[in-house]
Amino acid sequence: MIELIQFIYYVLQLYIYILVASALLSWLVAFNVVNPRHPVVAAIGQVLFAVTEPLLRPIRNVLPRMGLVDISPVVLILIIIFIQSVILPNLAKLVY
Question: Angle at Cα 57 formed by Cα 55 and Cα 62, nearest 5°?
Fold first, then answer.
């Protein structure tokens, strides 16, 4: 059971990296550093959007509009860190 908890921890850590990559790509596109019409950039953007949007959309619906600033990835990262640092260790204590 402890291996399953460790696996969940690593998957959540990987998802944090995916969120950061998605945010960085959106900034690079917004500042015209990369061309969003390039096939590789478009493919990476579509994959990142498909992976991150299902969890970011409910957070965006709850948060008030802040103009052009989107803090939903930050909120989701904080939620994931809370799960990693509070919920998973307490779940591991229940197993032992």
Answer: 110
Residue ranges of the domains in the chain? 2-95
Tell me the per-residue pLDDT of 70-89, one tens digit each, with 9 for 90 and over: 999 999 999 999 999 999 99
- Helix ranges (DSSP H) in 1-96: 2-30, 39-62, 72-82, 88-95
* Total Cβ atoms within 10 A of residue 6: 12
Taking every pair of Cα atoms in the chain, the longest distance, rounded to a whole number of angstroms, is: 52
How is residue 38 written in tokens? 């390039």
Phi-psi domain of 67 (left: phi exceeds 0; alpha: psi -120 through 50; beta: other): left
Query: What is the pLDDT, as a whole number, of residue 68?
Result: 84
